[in-house]
Write a structure and sequence with these properties.
It is built from 15 helices and seven strands. By secondary structure, the protein is mostly helical. The chain has two domains: 179 residues, no CATH class; 199 residues, Orthogonal Bundle (hpI Integrase, Chain A). The strands form three sheets. A three-stranded antiparallel sheet has the order 5-6-7. The chain has a two-stranded parallel ribbon with strand order 1-4. A hairpin with a 5-residue loop joins strand 6 and strand 7. The protein is globular. It starts with 27 loop residues before the first helix and ends in an 8-residue tail after the last helix.
């Protein structure tokens, strides 16, 4: 495959027709690029589109699965000349090695749309690449830019390959498109995946960092109340309700509104959300979270607390009607808060706290809220509010044993004499 013929296959979810009703149409350009027969390639594409379409209720899952399936099909069709029914265990292992060190022309330096609108048509974005090299937030702020030469596949990226492809081939088996799951035939995935002893450390803000985020917002509230009152409410929801960023943004499956806050017959307030796996859950609302809600509603000119059936968006746009539908916009708002707090910490001489905050992501607020609450709330209560599938996940946020282990090691001597 030449350096100028990389072609994306699957468009965004809102451009996806139902492939169970209409066979997926591969572009003529892609058909010309592969040695796989046109019939086999079209059938592979349709089955793959059907697999992706089954995840249309979860845009984030759809996007991550599309990334993995698209890379795999690109490799099968254009590198190896394989149709899906020809793939075996050795091919999966070869694909993993390929992903660990893909050709430089397969690697981009920024995430871009696969297709663009042009003259009423969807056309290929020539800047799209199957892999993307990235730099850390701290490096980007220091002026560093991404370089394809520095691309590295993470352990989580490796795990995604095995997980997604195994699920994918199980689907293809059920649809009688292939006879076996080649991923399941790999008996020693450990040669690719590192095993870690004990639970991973949960990434979260320190108490000083979280306080400084709140202080930083308070310090600039009067400069632009419309902007910073909304920012304050957003970070309060992420921390106080353990929300994921996707649970704040509007989507086809979920339009969060003020009426998702509701009071039961015992005068207890709850917030209903729809999270990962399209699962609905009720989250207990603390007194402090009610204070934050009242404050934001007062700023918006609404009643103190939501009324049943109220359709006001949870996070209204500053301009225009409706709620924020872009997780990227919410991420940008929170990042501005982190940046303000980082500057304040550095001005106070807290250089280590500032440097650590520079690496934080929005999801750390959810982690921080859970970690703080699990110190004094029953873990089963935190588990249900957080939407964890099991208490074992919640247990990862309890670091008492880890602290005790470090305390017992602190007085170890290198030279006991």
């Amino acid at each position: 495959m030449s350096k100028h013929t990389l072609q994306p296959i699957f468009d965004n979810l809102n451009e996806f027709e139902n492939p169970f009703r209409y066979p997926f149409q591969v572009s003529d350009d892609i058909l010309k690029l592969s040695d796989v027969s046109k019939t086999a390639l079209q059938q592979d594409a349709t089955r793959s589109a059907q697999f992706l379409y089954t995840y249309r209720g979860s845009p984030d899952t759809f996007a991550s699965y599309r990334r993995e399936i698209e890379r795999f099909l690109q490799w099968c069709w254009f590198v190896e000349g394989l149709s899906l029914d020809q793939v075996r265990r050795q091919h999966i292992e070869a694909f993993v090695h390929f992903c660990q060190s893909p050709p430089k022309h397969w690697i981009g330096t920024k995430s871009v749309q696969r297709f663009l609108n042009s003259g009423g048509q969807r056309v290929v974005n020539p800047q799209w690449r199957p892999f993307v090299a990235k730099v850390t937030k701290r490096a980007r702020k220091a002026g560093e830019t991404a370089d394809a030469k520095n691309y590295e596949l993470s352990q989580s990226g490796l795990q995604a390959i095995f997980s997604v492809l195994s699920t994918y081939f199980n689907f293809l088996i059920q649809e009688d498109h292939v006879a076996l799951n080649p991923v399941a035939q790999i008996r020693q995935k450990g040669k690719f995946l590192r095993k870690r002893q004990g639970a991973d450390t949960i990434r979260r803000l320190s108490e000083a960092q979280w306080h400084e985020v709140l202080n930083a917002i308070q310090a600039v509230l009067d400069e632009d109340p419309a902007k910073w009152e909304r920012a304050l409410f957003i970070v309060s929801c992420l921390f106080g309700l353990y929300l994921r960023i996707s649970e704040l943004a509007e989507s086809e499956r979920w339009q969060p509104s003020m009426s998702d806050f509701w009071k039961d017959s015992h005068d207890n307030w709850w917030f209903t959300t729809v999270g990962k796996g399209n699962k609905e859950r009720d989250i207990s609302v603390s007194d402090d979270m009610l204070v934050a809600l009242r404050r934001f509603r007062q700023f918006l000119g609404l009643s103190s607390l939501p009324l049943p059936g109220e359709h006001t968006p949870l996070i209204p746009k500053v301009r225009g009607k409706g709620g924020i539908a872009s997780t990227r916009q919410i991420r940008f708002i929170v990042q501005e808060c982190f940046d303000l707090a980082t500057d304040r910490l550095r001005a106070q001489g807290e250089t280590e706290e500032a440097a650590a905050l520079e690496t934080a992501t929005v999801h750390w607020l959810r982690h921080t809220g859970i970690s703080e609450d699990v110190k004094f709330r029953p873990r089963e209560h935190v588990r249900d509010d957080a939407g964890h599938g099991s208490s074992a996940i919640t247990d990862r946020y309890i670091d008492v044993e880890r602290q005790a282990r470090h305390a017992s090691a602190r007085s170890k001597k290198i030279n006991p004499a």
